[in-house]
Specification:
about 40% helix; about 25% strand; alpha+beta; single chain; elongated; 5 strands; 4 helices
Length: about 170
């Protein structure tokens, strides 16, 4: 995957090519060349390409990987300050903490807004247990609260509900 610096260099080369095509288009109109309208389309395409490359040079494309995190699925996200992920019932408390950190990193976005009293993104982790045949019950195992304003949040709070782990089905290993 290309870095931001490489995309910026691609943008510079694409910008130079765009200027060359624009000059060539101008010459084509001055000398009334037959393919001058094709050059208008080519120049327009180069402008769009340059703008796209410039945009890619602004946003980070890398994903932070937290060691020990397990797979999760996003089941609810209001786009502002609340989200819920689902995990397997076989998770351990240490895996849950790493998974909550991973979800907090993955779900951070500049576009989120805090609609409540505090500007925190709350991500709750749940699993589904089956205490009886035909009965399903959601069980919340923990949550993480992180800042909506700061990507590198050092004040992130993680709550693991240790008493809920006793309700998880025992696996025979």
């Amino acid at each position: 995957m290309f870095s931001q610096a490489e995309f910026l260099q691609f943008t510079q080369w694409s910008g130079i090519a765009t200027l060359v095509f624009a000059a060539l288009t101008l010459l084509a109109f001055i000398f009334k060349w037959g393919f001058r309208f094709r050059l208008v389309g080519t120049t327009g395409f180069m402008i769009v390409l340059t703008a796209g490359l410039f945009t890619l040079s602004l946003a980070p494309l890398s994903r932070t990987v937290i060691p020990g995190a397990v797979r999760y699925s996003l089941v609810y996200d209001n786009g502002a300050a609340q989200a819920v992920i689902t995990i397997t019932p076989e998770i351990t408390p240490t895996e849950l903490e790493a998974t909550l950190r991973q979800a907090a990193s993955d779900l951070y976005s500049f576009g989120r807004s805090g609609l409540g009293k505090e500007d925190k993104l709350t991500i709750r982790a749940r699993t589904v247990i089956h205490p009886q045949p035909g009965l399903s019950k959601p069980l919340y195992l923990g949550q993480v609260k992180r800042s909506l304003a700061n990507r590198e949040d050092s004040q992130m709070t993680i709550d693991i509900y240790q008493n809920k782990f006793a309700q998880l089905p025992k696996t025979d290993a």
